[in-house]
Design a protein that fits this description.
Layout: H1 16-19, H2 30-38, H3 45-57, H4 63-80, H5 83-100, H6 103-113, H7 117-120, H8 124-140, H9 144-158, H10 166-185, H11 189-204, H12 211-231, H13 234-247, H14 251-264, H15 268-285, H16 288-304, H17 308-324, H18 330-346, H19 350-488, H20 492-495, H21 499-503, H22 506-529, H23 532-537, H24 539-553, E1 557-564, H25 571-592, E2 596-605, E3 608-615, H26 622-625, H27 629-640, E4 643-649, E5 655-662, H28 663-670
Parallel strand pairs: 1-2
Antiparallel strand pairs: 2-3, 3-5, 4-5
Helix pairs in contact: 3-4, 3-5, 4-5, 5-6, 6-8, 8-9, 8-10, 9-10, 10-11, 10-12, 11-12, 12-13, 13-14, 14-15, 14-16, 15-16, 16-17, 16-18, 17-18, 18-19, 19-22, 19-27, 24-25, 25-27
Length: about 675
């Protein structure tokens, strides 16, 4: 078998977060695609999701453009602290580097994503997919300890999960697909095929597949075909590869494996056009590993046919690409040197041929060391496979014992049933009596909860009144007293002055400045009480003015974002939202010690409004300071708006508040 076509396959990584936010297969229009070249920083998480989705769908058509797009989404996600976008961009950039053969760079991307995993991934299947994808570049570099570590973490996360939707199905298929390929590396084809079939069975439960799920499903079938090829079932493998080529997905990989199958059957005429097609497409896509594999396979054919003029350009191109990439596998380097030595030997250039053979002696020593590592890993993998099988057998035995125990109990069920009827009759009688008292107790509890909520709101409002009273007393009244004093006690030099001299005097300018300052403070207090700006100009303008004026006054840099159209909600709901943001901003000013604050109002979904307030301040421990009076007051306001409140903070890492409000409920209450 031609060893230069390696036993690895492609891995789709971390797609689930974004497909769930838009229709499957939705792409970009021309203006959107042209914006990629401009490297504009995105200020909208929805736009980031859409671009990542679009980039994922282009993996098989334009890899350079995909890479530029993902770097843009990474830059924008980091700018917005959008953790899901950060993780997905890093992981898919790692996938790109895997395709290009830059495995260390792929590992660096995965490592860069690690600090954001907890906040960026919201379910076990996505996390499992990240870990399984992380194992892939380590396998190329023969770092089997790391492969084992990430593979076990992935399988432990999803082993007992049944996919609830197509997004989880895609995650789980990707994990089993990747792990199946990794088992194939250690020649455990049975375990490999078992995992790949498990991935296929998950896909079969979804007859109508999204575009992404179809790509993962097709990839799984290609890898199943590769396992049959490795086992020597050539005709079965060919049927798998032919079917995938008809589907039009992963054509490069399908054509490469199909060519290998034809070479196994000594059908060279069928293999040559497939290899030529792979070379053309892989070069345009910068899929250098696929291109080199196809070039060496085709050169080997031409050498055997003594068509040396056709072989040399292929060998030169492959050798040039191998020398550019220091992480090219030892087997590929060995194959390239061997074919070059054969070529120069056939041309009578024995010195050059000897140099390539000499280089292969050193590579062969390294391959021996690699094989020793692989042997150890095979033994460990076999042990793990045995443990998995033993665990499955133990579970089957437990099921059998439970079944026998159930059968033994059947004989006692009839007698117990009679007794149960008597007990049930007595219980029903008791329930009737208890239900009356329970209803009264529940009603009393509900009243107590509502009283507590109203007390909390009243307490918050009382605190707000006290704060405003203090602001008026300590600011406005003192300023008015200063104005009065300045007017009452006119300097003697000005007592006989005319109006023109007085208006140009320092004394008048001081009084004028005091009046301006007092008017400014009165305007600020009025806006805090009931901003006329809100009634006249709407919620967006009022919040923009409040956030900018309040934060800039204390040296904090605000960033205000309004996404979507004006909110179609009652005025009292607008006032409640204003008060919620106002309370959060005032808490930041008092306690956070922040330098930057993000306030985002999103109305992109017709059914809900999302409020986000984030700061880069000192943060706090939620276990000890998670439910103060201010937070309780905000929670109660959110509850009255039929909303959900989520607070996240760590010491030294700032604070984030996410609020979702059900617009439909607000409109129903209005009617």
């Amino acid at each position: 078998m031609n060893k230069c076509i390696k036993n690895y396959s492609r891995v789709i990584a971390l797609v689930i977060f974004f497909v769930s936010h838009q229709a499957p297969g939705q792409g970009l229009n021309t203006s959107f695609e042209s914006g990629i070249e401009q490297q504009v920083t995105l200020t909208d998480t929805a736009a980031i999701r859409q671009k990542i989705n679009w980039a994922i769908e282009q993996f098989n058509t334009n890899l350079p453009l995909v890479e530029r797009t993902l770097k843009q989404t990474l830059h924008s996600s980091l700018h917005l602290n959008y953790y899901t976008g950060i993780v997905a961009s890093y992981a898919n950039l790692a996938f790109v580097e895997n395709q290009k053969g830059n495995y260390s760079k792929a590992i660096n991307y995965y490592n860069s994503a690690q600090p954001y995993l907890t906040k960026g991934l919201n379910n076990r299947t996505s996390l499992a997919m990240f870990y399984s994808a992380n194992a892939v570049p380590y396998s190329y570099l023969s770092k089997f300890d790391s492969v084992y570590y990430f593979a076990i973490k992935a399988i432990n996360l999803i082993d007992t999960i049944h996919p609830a939707n197509s997004y989880e199905a895609n995650d789980m298929m990707s994990v089993y697909n990747t792990l199946g390929v990794l088992w194939g590396i250690v020649d455990n084809h049975e375990q490999s095929l078992s995992l790949l079939v498990k991935a296929k069975n998950i896909g079969d439960t979804f007859p109508k597949k999204s575009r992404l799920l179809q790509i993962t499903y097709d990839l799984t079938l290609i890898n199943i075909g590769k396992r049959y090829l490795d086992k020597g079932a050539i005709d079965t493998a060919i049927s798998y590869f032919h079917d995938r080529l008809k589907q039009g997905t992963n054509n490069t990989l399908s054509a490469l494996y199909l060519a290998q199958a034809y070479l196994e059957k000594a059908d060279t005429p069928a293999a040559i056009p497939l290899l030529e097609e792979v070379i053309l497409f892989a070069d345009s896509m910068q899929l250098f590993t696929h291109a080199v594999d196809a070039q060496l396979s085709l050169a080997n054919i031409y050498l055997k046919q003594s068509e040396f003029r056709k072989a040399l350009p292929l060998l030169s191109a492959a050798d040039q690409q191998i020398n550019k990439n220091p992480e090219t596998s030892l087997e590929t380097r060995y194959e390239s040197n061997k074919l070059l030595a054969q070529y120069y030997g056939a041309q009578g250039q024995y010195k050059k041929a000897f140099e390539y053979w000499q280089s292969n002696i050193e590579i062969a020593e390294k391959i021996k060391l690699h094989d020793k590592k692989l042997t150890v890993y095979k033994m460990e993998a076999a042990r793990i496979a045995a443990a998995i099988n033993a665990d499955n057998e133990a579970k089957n035995l437990e099921l059998k014992l439970a079944k026998n125990k159930l059968q033994n109990k059947n004989s006692s069920i009839i007698a117990l049933s009679i007794l149960a009827l008597i007990i049930i009759s007595w219980v029903l009688y008791s329930i009737r009596n208890i239900r009356k008292s329970t209803k009264a107790t529940l009603k009393q509890k509900e009243q107590e909860v509502e009283i507590t909520r109203l007390q909390s709101i009243n307490k918050g409002e009382e605190q707000e009144r006290s704060r405003l009273a203090k602001e008026i007393h300590d600011g406005i009244l003192i300023q008015l007293a200063n104005i009065k004093t300045n007017i009452k006690y006119l300097p003697k030099a000005l007592e006989t002055a005319n109006m023109q001299d007085y208006l140009s005097s320092v004394h008048f300018k001081n009084v004028e400045q005091l009046i301006d300052q007092t008017a400014k403070e009165m305007r600020h207090a009025a806006h805090n009480l009931m901003p006329e700006f809100l009634l006249e100009s709407g919620l967006e303008a009022a919040l923009f003015y409040f956030c900018n004026s309040t934060l800039k006054q204390v040296g904090i840099q605000p960033e205000f974002q309004w996404l979507g159209s004006p909110l179609p909600i009652p005025k009292d709901a607008e006032l409640s939202i204003f008060r919620i943001i106002q309370e959060l901003i005032q808490n930041i000013v008092k306690h956070a010690q922040a330098t930057n604050v993000l306030v985002q109002i999103s109305n992109l979904d017709e059914e809900g409004i999302t409020l986000t307030v984030e700061d880069n301040g000192k943060g706090f421990d939620l276990l000890h300071k998670g439910n103060g009076i201010g937070i309780s007051n905000i929670k109660n306001r959110v509850h009255l708006l039929h909303g959900k409140f989520d607070l996240r903070s760590d010491l030294g890492k700032g604070c984030s508040v996410f609020i979702e409000i059900d617009t439909l409920s607000l409109l129903e209450n209005k009617t």
